[in-house]
Write a structure and sequence with these properties.
Layout: H1 2-32, E1 33-40, E2 49-57, E3 61-69, E4 80-87, E5 106-117, E6 124-135, E7 138-145, E8 149-153, H2 157-163, E9 172-173
Antiparallel strand pairs: 1-2, 2-3, 3-4, 4-5, 5-6, 6-7, 7-8, 8-9
Length: about 170
């Protein structure tokens, strides 16, 4: 009976250690996450949206969660999404129709799939590329819906607003 009690305590201690370890690594994951922001322009502030990507950025792969933030004065809906992609920088070629700033100073390119759940709609899947550029000290992300369009994203929403104060369409279409 003493042996069973020792085994039970040892298993309990092991489970407690694993729980603490998983909580510690969950904290590290959240800490390592980064955000990208986009003004989804529609002519004026009231019709435009604040989009956000919360990403786990790795050396060879990224996973990102997409949502929209309900900022005062902006339009909002509950559309969400998830992207998962891997590094294809070495084999990537910039499409001819891309804006030049999406092809200059390319640091990394990730290709993968995004699954979106539109607010009140049916889920859909789309192939995407995330192109990370660095120019004059500014890091920017271009999200490419493969063979459709490419749009700029910024590290902060203030940067996104400063880049497009007139709320004009800023995506480039194929």
């Amino acid at each position: 009976m003493g042996h069973d009690r020792k085994r039970t305590r040892a298993i309990g201690a092991l489970l407690a250690s694993l729980l603490l370890l998983s909580l510690g690594s969950a904290g590290a994951t959240a800490k390592d996450a980064s955000e990208w922001h986009r003004l989804n322009p529609n002519g004026d502030q009231q019709s435009s949206e604040h989009e956000r990507l919360t990403c786990r950025e790795g050396a060879t792969s990224w996973t990102c969660t997409y949502d929209k933030l309900p900022d005062a004065g902006f339009s909002w809906n509950a559309t969400t999404g998830h992207f998962s992609g891997r590094d294809v920088t070495d084999s990537w070629t910039c499409p001819e129709w891309f804006p030049s700033e999406a092809c200059t100073g390319v640091v990394q390119v990730l290709r993968g799939v995004a699954v979106f759940l539109p607010d009140g709609g049916r889920p859909f899947t789309v192939g995407q590329e995330y192109i990370i550029t660095r120019d004059a000290g500014q890091t920017r992300l271009f999200v490419h819906w493969i063979d459709s369009f490419v749009c700029p994203w910024y590290r902060t929403f203030d940067e996104a607003l400063a880049a497009n104060p007139t709320f004009d369409v800023d995506c480039t279409f194929a």
